[in-house]
Structures are given as structure tokens and as C-alpha cells.
Design a protein that fits this description.
Blueprint (H helix, E strand, L loop, with lengths): L78 H5 L8 E2 L2 E2 L1 E2 L10 H13 L10 H21 L7 E4 L2 H16 L5 E5 L8 H10 L2 E5 L9 H7 L4 E7 L11 H10 L3 E5 L11 H4 L3 E5 L10 E5 L1 H4 L12 E4 L4 E3 L13 H15 L3 H19 L5 E3 L9 E6 L4 H10 L2 E2 L1 E3 L4 H5 L6 E5 L6 H17 L4
Parallel strand pairs: 3-15, 5-6, 5-7, 7-8, 8-9
Antiparallel strand pairs: 1-2, 4-10, 9-10, 11-12, 13-14, 14-17, 16-17
Length: about 475
Amino acid sequence: MTTPDLLGGLSPRPNPTLTPTTPVTALTPPVPSTAAVPAEAPPEVPAEVRAEVPAQPVSPATAPESPSLIPPPAGGFTPEAARADVPALHRTVNGHPLVWLDNAATTQKPRQVIEMLGTYYSAANSNIHRGAHTMAREATEAYEAGRAAVADFLGAPSPDSVVFVRGTTEAVNLVAQSWGRAHVGPGDDILVPVLEHHSDIVPWQQLAAERRARVVPVPLTPEGTIDQDTFADLLSYRTQLVAISHASNVLGTISPVREMTALAHRYGAKVLVDGAQAVAHLPVDVTELDADFYAFSGHKIFGPTGIGALYAKPEVLETMRPWQGGGNMIEDVTFARTAFAPVPHRFEAGTGHIGGVVGLLSALNWLSGFDREAVAAYETALTEYAHQALGTVPGLELIGPAAQKVGVLTFTLAGCTPEETAAWLDNDGIAVRAGHHCAQPALRHYNLESATRASLALYNTKEDLDQLTTSLLRLQDQQPTA
């Protein structure tokens, strides 16, 4: 996949996995110099936790000289190839090199994305569609190339099955208001597992209240997985929709989406998958999953904020009426009637986040340049190492020990509130998140109102986790003895 030739510039390293239907050439603007940040030796962690994760060298102190992504080794992956492209990972915080472990909230951006945004706004900014001038044509080509890239990335059958939205939250609301109002009625059920993010609970509650339907919670097991037996029992011909997280933002649990979807379809129910926490970590094929809807947010997959995508099966999308009205989503308007544009444009009222789509295209191109299977295997090993390392901290309790999970590590620490723990870590340059993580029902399953969360991405290393563990051990040393 390549980005459009906005300025007639140079092409970045080609990506064989993303091939849009619109032939475009690419541009990568000149690479600015990056200030060197002194690297510090990582602190020691007890030797018994140094398990099966391959040792990684200390992150490079400066950006690479080459303007292209450092190619990963044949058949493998190293996080240094990713770290070298991400400027924020080379800064200091409170006098320490930054350790970014807040990836479930947002990921840091590679320079390719940052520079492409600058290129778009400085030299190719224009509104899209219907413009007769060159820059309008270039911006439109970039925007639609982004749609094709998302379709390819998700394994969707056509770019026309992809709708651009502000993020996963807007995607869920779009489905609730457009599809839900037409198909959910009095006495119908919407099944929502307890592990869901608030954005996959509240819109269904609002719809259910309006349509006199029910939101039925699906309980969790002690390990933080969806109780599959209860799920099967709760399904019925009253079930109109099942909403599932592909991966939980607070427990990390990877749900058996394909199996749950197949079971729901037996009852004629549609399935919406919240993929916000999965797409950066797992290869996704919506055709294989057979999901009716799949949503994700760009900022959680190394792209800009304010942009995301909703995939919907073409036959389902065709039945949906627009949610918002205005420009860009119409064919013809009179005071007697309005004819709507074909899908997906009828769902994109007004001027979209064009720069966000260009940035998302660049992010997908960057991520797909790595061996995704190797990335997933690396992150799995890194997560196992994290569990072992954090297990050496007295009084630390990890929440949700599911066997299949992404690198989300939510925990409590005896004697410290989550906010105190996060503030201590921040003093050491370690960024984590504290609070309810917009998943209060999931935390309350463990009788908690808040917790601390460290979350991983492909650019994190064993050294990051060593620093996290050592800082927590120092914090515990500060606690008064009983």
C-alpha cells in the first residue's frame, strides 16, 4: 500500500500487504533530525523472572539516518525497528528516559505518520469530492486510498464496506442509531458482556430505553473471560444484537469472536465487534470472523486521534439509513425530498477528518511493513515476561489472568491507591494509567472501583518492564511496615 503522490515526491518502502483498488504513488517528506537523548542502563530485576523473551539491546538514542523504516530481520521482528521511528520514545520525563506503558489509552506515533500529516496540511490541504482543481483531486485520492487500505487491513471484501468515523465510540453509536432503531423493538435483547468498555454499553442502554428493549449482561469467569455457557443460555430469538470486545481494554482478554458470532447467527442476531484494543496486536480478518460490524480507532493503532473506521457487511450496510444529515451524504436535495448518496458516503455527513485518514493510511502502511505474526508472537512473550516480573513485587495483584490476552496488565498494589502508584511511576518517567478505565462493570467483577494499568505495544521491551518492576519494588520499600 502506498500513499498518494501529493507533491510528486519520493516513495517510501513499499508495503506488499495493502493494495488499494485506486492506483496511487507515494510520498515520504524529508526526515528532520532527532535530538539525541542519553540512554540509561535499565535497573536490575530478579534473575528468576528473566524467561523466554529474547534479550533486546538498549533502544537507540537517536533516530536512524535512513529515511526508511529499518527492515525487520527476515522471518522475525525486533522492537528496535519500531522504536527508532517513534520520536516520543526518545524524550525524557522527569529526568528519566520515557517508558511508555499507556498504549491501551493511546499509542505513540511513528515519524512517518507525523510527517505525512505535515505534508498534507502544508502542501495538499483541500476538501474532497466534487472539487475540480488539482488539490481537491489529490486529497480525494488520498482519502479514498485510506478507505481501501482499511478494507485490505481488515480483510473486508470492498472499500465500500468501510465508513470513516471519529473512532470506535462513534462507530458503535452509528450502528445503534442507524441499524438499531430499525431492528430493535419492544421485548428484544441486546447481549453485552461485563468486560465491555463503556462505549459498548451506554449506546445500547440508550437504544434499549428508547425502543423498550433490554440490555442483558453476560457474566465473566474468575479468570476474566466471557462465560460461554451462560452466553449460550442467554441467546434466544429475542436477541437482536451481540456486542463483543475483540480484546478487553482493562483485562486484556481475547474473546472467541468467531465462535460467539457463529452461535449468535444461529438465532438470527447480528454481532458488533469492538476491535479498538485488538487491531494493533492481532491480525484481523473480518471475513473469517464473520462479524456483521467491526470498529476500531486510529489513535490506538499508531495513527492520529479523531479518526476511526466501521466495517459492516455490505448487505447490512445497504439496509441502514443515514444517522446524520448534511453535505457530502446526498445525491439530490429539494424541499420535497432528499436522495441519499450510496454507501458508504451516506454515513459521512459533512467534511470528514481528511488529514486523519491520510495519517491513518500512513500508520497502517507502517504497521503492515512488519511481520504481523512475528509481532504477535513477540508481544505474547513480552506479556508472559511482564506477568513473571510483576509477580516479584510484594503486595501486587494482577487482575484478569486469562490464558489468551493482549498486553494489558491491570493491577492493584497493597498500601497504595492506583493514583499514588501512577504518580510514583511518573516520577521515574514511566507512563501508566490509573482509574476505572471506562470499564467499571469489569472492575466491579473483582470488587474494585479503580486500578493501575500498564499496557504494551510492539515497541516496548524487557528493559521497559524491568524499569517498571524496579520502580514498584522501590515504592514498596517506602511503605511503612505493620
